[in-house]
Amino acid sequence: MTSDRHATPVDPAHLREQYDDAERLRIRIDTHDRFSERDGTFADWALAKIAAGPSMRLLDVGCGPGPYHPALIAAGAAIVALDQSAGMAREVLAQASRLGATVDVARGDAVALPFADASFDRVIACHMMYHVTDQRGAFEEMRRVLAASGRVVLTTNAGSIGGWEELHERAAHALGYEPLPRDDARFTLDDLDLVRGVFPSAEVFVRDDAFLFREAEPAVRYYASGIDDRIRDRPSDGSHHTPLIDAVRREIERIIVRDGVLRIEKSAGCFVAGV
Fold first, then answer.
1. What φ, ψ does residue 37 adopt, rounded to 5°?
2. If we measure between CA atoms, which residue out of 240, 224, 113, 79 comes closest to residue 174?
3. What is the Rg, in whole angstroms, of the alpha carbon atoms belonging to the chain?
């Protein structure tokens, strides 16, 4: 069954804007690394679930700039990276070159993987399935290319994460904009039944965490990396950015003065399954 959140359309123009290069994504990754409540990174936690070893063939679907690749290369995995964005493909190749490694990069769609059946020991899709319109079709393709003894790992966010949305909605309404639902609501850790429709053995693992900001600017920078674009009929000239960012900055500063810290929950996790 498709819920309303699964039926929310994917905006291709917004995806191109967000992922034509890695700048906005790097801001988000850096903020997670520097301002998290828990010790260690989500990537390290997820890599333990992926459990890639020497000579394993690993497919990274919707690879982005390849944030997991350095650790996977160090583990001896042979990486094939797939993304629709030419910018992300360039980022992955440049990173591999800096590491003195080889990563095979393909441009393509998650629902039509250009690879042979049972050709990978690991298939990962890290915080990207909410960008896919036909999620079941993508899962079926991942299952097709996964070897019999292989493992698929799908990382995503928890279903209920309120802090950023509350800040954004208050600012948007105050300025006369209509806020849109968060992009990642289309695929969350609540979707175990959806994943089990293709991977019956799937299990869900949750890692609770939160952002802790004791000054406003890093939080504002994170908000401005894409959350401020979640408004209906977004102005093509970008005139919404400054008023929204300024309004959110004032609210964040008010909270930090009052509480000494801005804490925003950001639980995330993954689905892990075999064929």
1. -70, -40
2. 240
3. 19
For 205-260, how does the pLDDT look when each residue is reduced to its tens digit (9 = 90+)? Answer: 999 999 999 999 999 999 999 999 999 999 999 999 999 999 999 999 999 999 99
Bridge-based pairing of strands 146-157 and 203-207 is unpaired
> Taking the complete model, does pTM exceed 0.85, yes or no?
yes
Q: Is 112 exposed, middle or buried (0-12, 13-18, 19+ CB in 10 A)?
A: exposed
Please give the DSSP secondary-structure letter assigned to residue 20: S
β-strand partners of 123: 59, 152
Long-range CB contact pairs, 173-176, < 8 A, 24+: 174/247, 175/240, 175/243, 175/244, 175/247
Burial 162-201 (b: 16+ CB within 10 A, else e): ebbbebbbebbeeeebebbebbbbbbbbebeebbbebbee
Compute the distance between CA of residue 79 and CA of residue 69 in angstroms, rounded to an integer: 8
Give the Cα separation of 19 and 218 in Å (integer): 21
| Interatomic CA distance for residues 165 and 148, integer angstroms | 41
- Encoded tokens for 74: 């160090």
Structure tokens at 73: 């290369």
CA distances to 63, 110, 198, 200, 272 from 118, rounded to whole Å, are: 20, 16, 15, 17, 17
Instruction: Return the closest-CA partner of residue 59 out of 9, 124, 132, 15.
Output: 124
Closest-CA residue to 170 (of 102, 247, 227, 106): 247
